[in-house]
Amino acid sequence: MMMLLLSGATPLAALSCDACDVNASLTGFTCRDPALPLELCPVGRYCTTATFDDGIPCQEATITDNYPRLYCEEGSKSYSVCPGGYICPNTTTKIQCAAGTFCAQGTNSTFECLSEWFQSAESRCPAGSSKEPARYDSVVITILAIVILVLVVESIVWCAGKFQEKQRERAELLHLEIKDMSFNIGKATVLSRLKAEFYQGELCGLMGESGSGKTTLLNVLGGRALYGKIQGRVNLNRRRYEPERIKLGFVPQAYLIFKELTVWENLWYAARHRVSLKTATTEAINELVMTVVELLGLTEVAHVVCDKNIGTHRLSGGQLRRVGIGIELVALPTVLLLDEPTSALDAVNTQLIMQVLQSLAARGVLVVASLHQPRFTVYELLDRLLVLRAGELIYAGQRSYTLDYLDMLGFVPAPHENPADFFIEVAL
Ligand SMILES: Nc1ncnc2c1ncn2[C@@H]1O[C@H](COP(=O)(O)OP(=O)(O)OP(=O)(O)O)[C@@H](O)[C@H]1O
Ligand SMILES: [Mg+2]
Q1: What is the pLDDT of residues 11-44, one digit of tens each?
Q2: DSSP state letter for 6
Q3: Per residue, what are the HEC states of 49-110?
Q4: Of 181, 184, 187, 190, which is best to mutate to test ligand 1, by the most ligand atoms within 8 angstroms of its C-beta?
Q5: For a tag on the chain, would you pick the N or C end, based on fewer CB atoms within 10 A?
Q6: For ligand 1, what atom is nearest to the CA of residue 219?
Q7: What is the pLDDT of residues 84-98, one digit of tens each?
């Protein structure tokens, strides 16, 4: 008697075809010949009982025609639908669906799997796929589009904010602020913890005895104090002050002019090289130079050579000083720093230069000028005053408040005494 081992290691039953009759419930098996052992129901058929035949053909099932496709594998107990991931051309054949396609359950047709922009059709639908996985590219594209839209909107809002900020900055008056600023050359402290403010549209006088630090402070503000170390902060409109980023004019005590050139030529060449060459036409430069010449009261001597040894018409010291200032003015500075622009000049020339500076301040220039013992008439033209003594600040504030300030400290000037002289006396 033959024994049958079913799948797995354990014998399910020791059955021969002799048992078929008595074990009619044994499904999935067949006894084609009583002399042979019990067999698995053949492919393409199914066996409801282990009777003496080949089982029932798959297509005898009550399922209509070709759809869904049927397939009966070996040992089938009942008919079954062609499984997903396969095509079944007939009930005995089951072919795995190729990569890049998918085959639905019960069909004999393959369907093409679409690729996505980040995934090929083959990796989306490997061999034996029964359905196409959900598509993500449209979802990803939608998310990306939303992200890009959000970024674009954010950028527009940011740009609009920056634009408004710039507009505000443009509209805002220049405000130069020194905060606890010290300046050291080696171990020597030349300026010590200065606190002061300067405003656009104001003329500020810088006073103090010789060696008190006036030129040094101007050099710091002019970005020229590279020979020492600045500590503390200097701000322009609440941001770190960078002299090289603003239109800055600096008139040193020893100003430079080309003596072989006329007043007009000195200013014209300065303008030619300092005003943007892209925007300025020759006519525009001529007009600018003419305006500066008129402002400085140099019209009559515009075509006089600056060297006193050339020609008959000589320029005075005051006129030469104004040419030096003019060379800076043609660059249209917003901040103008001058180191002793009136020293060694007579009263008339001093007054002339100070009136020019006052008129520049009124036109929106932030003007700071160091002054050595200014006359009362000059002192009165100042909007703001800064007084130094040995690198320390004695006074920084409105000029009109100085006498009240001294009075508060118990210092009262004699009648008709020049407050500027009095202040320096007190400071000493
Ligand atoms: N390059 C330098 N090296 C060393 N010390 C310097 C330098 N420049 C200035 N000083 C010193 O710094 C101090 C201030 O000088 P500063 O020229 O600023 O004074 P000032 O008020 O302009 O004087 P004055 O009215 O004579 O022009 C002085 O004691 C001076 O000796
Ligand atoms: Mg000086």
Answers
A1: 444 466 665 554 556 788 888 777 777 788 889 8
A2: -
A3: CCCCCCCEEHHHCCCCCCCCCECCCCCCCCCCECCCCEEEEECCEEEECCCCEECCCCCCCC
A4: 190
A5: N
A6: 18
A7: 999 988 889 999 999
* One-letter amino acid of 212: S
- Could you tell me which residues come within 8 angstroms of residue 180 by beta carbon, excluding any fewer than 6 positions away? 193, 194, 195, 231, 232, 233
Cβ 215 under 6 angstroms from ligand 1: yes
Say if ligand 1 is within 6 A of residue 211 CB. yes
Ligand 2 geometric centre to CA of 33 (Å): 129
Whole-number Å distance, alpha carbon 210 to ligand 1 midpoint, is: 8
Compute mean pLDDT per 10 residues along the chain, 428 residues long, and list them. Answer: 40 54 68 77 86 77 62 89 90 92 89 86 92 81 91 91 75 87 94 94 93 95 94 91 91 88 94 77 89 92 88 84 92 93 87 90 93 89 93 92 88 86 80
Quick one: which ligand is closest to 424's CA?
1
Please say whether the beta carbons of 274 and 331 come within 8 A. yes
Q: Which residue CA neighbors atom 10 of ligand 1 most closely?
A: 190
Task: Say if ligand 1 is within 6 A of residue 25 CB.
Answer: no
